[in-house]
Write a structure and sequence with these properties.
Strand content: 25-35%
Largest sheet: 19 strands, mixed
Number of strands: 23
Oligomer: single chain
């Protein structure tokens, strides 16, 4: 038996290496770039196979190429030159670059990618250039095989090309990018296959128009303006029924068509809702039957025409002195918004920035909102109140309890100074005492449906909320607190 085994060993073959090169290339296609390179040590026939597979992925940010800019350039350049000289077909090419030196590759190779057979070119240029400086990348506008383009800290130039051939582009993400409005208009008008747009802190944009005829495949749109917080910097017009996710921070916004039948997630923060180019309105009029998540942050309480049948609604509202002076109508507008969203799970977060006492007529608010309108108070799953002056807590809570029924109330303080654990406990103790007195001495019309409440603290080790007695607060190690409430009239 041993002799037979030794006789067969010299005749054994590397069956995998005997496969046709085309098959080997397809096998390597299923591996990551690093895994494909490692196969070069398997045997002599495998040494250069990875350089002929139909997909390449290069990144100057991986562990090997980190701080080796010139070596990265040489490897990418030699590999692409090998494909070109041997007439090899390169179908997919993914390039991640984070240093300015590597940009020279684009000027050389982008014009040649299409002739090499590339139909899936994904380019990530996330420049580490210092703030105030940008990498100049006008050559990118000539890359017809692009399917994904993600640029950070780049400048697309000032020369407006006659044609931008982005016929395959599906994902476009521009962050801290300088781009002329006319170039931008040409880009998005030439991208019929775009499924995702993401624009953040871009310079030069004044208008973004999403058109149902041009953007039939658009699923996601994200616009973030963190730099200036100026809504006048850019105006967004949306007429794209295929959208499923919209996130807009810091802009004017106008929905041309009411039908957003596919939208599942809508996030609006620091926006200005417009009816047309002249008129503004706090009313968001859209039909969104599939809405699963709605989040709004702003100074103005909007009205909505959609009513999510399920899912979650997250509201972050700011009350300033101008709102506090008319607190009665402020809470009535909030009540109308909560009623529109009542079929979803509501989280309400109020930032109280007013410096003066609120003038609230509880009897009138209860009469107008509940008795007069025959409205049942809306259930709010989570209510978080951030406030600068503890003395104003009862006023805000009184107005809130007139219009809704919070299940969990979490206080937070915006006061100045260092918030030690001892200070948090002291403030929480004072808040809980004021809360108890408010219930004992408050309007019976508001509190008649309250069956009970419990003070809870967060166990940071177990990440669980645990009940505690107010008299034992100083003995606890809790630094986060809330009140759990039980109402008899909750849905």
């Amino acid at each position: 038996m041993k002799k037979a085994n030794s006789d067969r060993r010299p005749e054994s073959m590397d069956m995998l290496s005997e496969l046709p090169k085309e098959i080997l290339q397809r096998i390597l296609c299923l591996l990551s770039q690093e895994e494909a390179v490692r196969t070069s040590v398997l045997s002599k026939p495998w040494r250069h196979i990875w350089r002929t597979r139909p997909n390449l992925v290069f990144s100057d940010n991986n562990n090997y190429f980190r701080d080796k800019e010139q070596e990265f350039l040489s490897v990418v350049d030699e590999t692409l030159r090998g494909y070109l000289e041997q007439g090899l077909r390169l179908e997919e090419f993914h390039l991640h670059m984070s240093n300015d030196v590597s940009v020279s590759l684009l000027d050389k190779w982008i014009p040649k990618l299409e002739s090499m057979g590339v139909n899936d070119f994904r380019l990530y240029v996330l420049s580490k250039h210092e703030v105030g400086g940008m990498v100049d990348l006008p050559v990118v506008l000539k890359a017809e095989p692009l399917t994904l383009l993600w640029l950070y800290n780049c400048d697309l130039g000032r020369n407006i090309p006659e044609n931008i051939p982005f016929v395959r582009l599906q994902v476009l993400r521009l962050q801290n990018v300088s781009i002329e409005q006319e170039i931008f208009d040409k880009v998005i008008s030439s991208c019929a296959l775009l499924a995702s747009m993401w624009f953040q802190d871009c310079k030069g944009l004044t208008t973004i128009k999403l058109d149902t005829k041009l953007h039939k495949n658009l699923k996601q749109f994200i616009f973030i303006n963190d730099v200036t917080y100026q809504k006048d910097d850019c105006s967004i017009e949306i007429d794209a029924p295929t959208l499923e996710k919209v996130k807009i921070f810091g802009s004017k916004i106008r929905f041309h068509g009411r039908e957003l039948c596919n939208i599942k997630s809508l996030y609006l923060a620091n926006v200005e809702i417009a009816i047309n180019s002249v008129k503004r309105s706090p009313v968001l009029c859209i039909d969104a039957p599939k809405m699963e998540y709605y989040e709004y942050t702003g100074l103005v309480i909007p009205s909505v025409s959609f009513a999510p049948a399920s899912g979650r609604s997250n509201l972050k509202l700011y009350m300033r002195d101008d709102g506090a002076n008319d607190a009665q109508s402020w809470f009535l507008r909030l009540s109308a918004l909560l009623r529109d969203l009542r079929r979803s799970e509501i989280t309400l977060h109020i930032f109280h920035l007013a410096r003066f006492d609120l003038q609230i007529e509880e009897d009138i608010l209860v009469r107008d909102n509940i008795n007069g309108g025959n409205y049942k108070p809306v259930v709010v799953e989570n209510f978080r109140l951030e406030i600068g002056q503890l003395s104003l807590f009862p006023y805000v809570l009184s107005g809130l309890f007139c219009i809704c029924r919070p299940r969990k109330v979490t206080p937070q303080w915006l006061g100045k100074g260092t918030w030690t654990d001892e200070r948090k406990q002291k403030e929480a103790g004072e808040f809980f005492c004021k809360f108890t007195k408010m219930i004992e001495n408050g309007n019976r019309e508001i509190w008649r449906d309250l069956e009970g409440f419990t003070f809870e603290g967060l166990d940071e080790i177990r990440l669980e909320w645990q009940p505690f007695q107010l008299t034992k607060l100083s003995e606890s190690e809790f630094t986060e607190f809330r009140i759990r409430m039980k109402w008899s009239d909750q849905d």
